[in-house]
Amino acid sequence: MIWLQFAILLGAILIGARMKGIGLGVMGMIALALYLFLFRMRPAEPPIDVMLIILAVVTTAATMQAAGGMDYMVRIAEKILRSKPSMITLMGPLVTYCFTLFAGTSHITYSLLPIISEVATKKRIRPERPLSISVIAAHLGITSSPISAATAAMITILAGQIEMIHILKICIPACLIGILAGVAVVWKKGKELENDPVFIEKMKDPEFAKELDAENADNNKPLPKGAKTSVIIFGVAVLLIVLVGAFPNMLPHFEPGKANLSVNANGTIKMAAVIELVMLAAAALMLLLTKTTTTAIAKASLFTAGAQAVVSIFGVVWMSATFMEANEAVIEGGLGDMVRAAPWTFSIALFVLSMLLFSQAATTKALMPLGVLLGIPPSSLVAMFPATNGDFVLPGYPTLLAAINFDRTGSTHIGKYLINHSFMIPGLVSVSVSVAAGFLLASIFW
């Protein structure tokens, strides 16, 4: 029976992934309905905490975007990237990683990808090199960010066993090491641009050649007056969340009682609630101080992307959690001995599931509780956290597709066999090295 139920789960994920957008969420609900009414499975608790965090963080990031803060950050990043064009393969991924680390979502990097492609092309560096590792670095930033939904899910699942500072001091250096390893493998990847037959053919078109080296005048557009203010407010909010995560005693403590979405049974405030509170308060300050309209926020691209993410996570995580809880004994019996003997093998399961879910938060919420059930130490689970970045394997994630479209030379591509694409090698190397570095750092700092 478990194999039939698993086939339904896998089918819903595959069909939903092909539908894109909210497809994963709505297909997850169909599978959940089958579980409930056909197999009489008890529904698990829906991932309300993760959904609320995504809503709060994305709303604040969208407010910053509407206030012009995103454009302000992109201009700073552009100056950095253009200052050392010969080092774009190194600078590109470091900048996209920092952007995601700061904002908690990789969707913030869309504005950087065309700049990376342009700088590389004008320097006649194969754009595939910096673009591929920059996308991977942006994804790894999610499992390093103090305000990402994935990090908050980890803190919620391991409540009482770890604090935010444990994740940050392991995952930030581990992911940076992984990114540097990815940079090394793409540094000379593929033919040099001037020797690439596709690029040579494109350069025969005089209009293409002229447009390729044309100067971009977008920087001449004036920024809204509140652009810099919105970035400062967002930065202070992120810093406050990090401080609270590092020093939880800063928060008020209440009498022990019944737990809810905001407070633990021992009377401490949940980190998820802190993130939601601080982020939305920051959004309110931006609205007051920058005179940004709520209509502009609702129209921001980040807000739309966040809404899709909420629906997707709602359906797919609720479905996955219901399957896991209903088959807990069977799964534990089948995997328990192997995982306890070699905890690192659990990272393979995380990676494979993230390939299908296209979400670090959804993978974390769906599978990390199983890691706890199997008795894997919290330090090992944190070390394996970067393994949830398998969303590059099937080239359907928006940032991958955006990078391909922004590369006018055609060097960044999806291969004939689908998975032999530009992001596969840097992705596999970066994630593998990040997990290995995570285990090493956990053994030192834990």
UniProtKB/TrEMBL annotation:
Keywords: Cell inner membrane, Cell membrane, Membrane, Transmembrane, Transmembrane helix, Transport
Cellular-component GO terms for this entry: plasma membrane
GO molecular function: C4-dicarboxylate transmembrane transporter activity
Compartment(s) of residence: Cell inner membrane
Main location: membrane
Membrane topology: Multi-pass membrane protein
Protein name: Anaerobic C4-dicarboxylate transporter DcuA
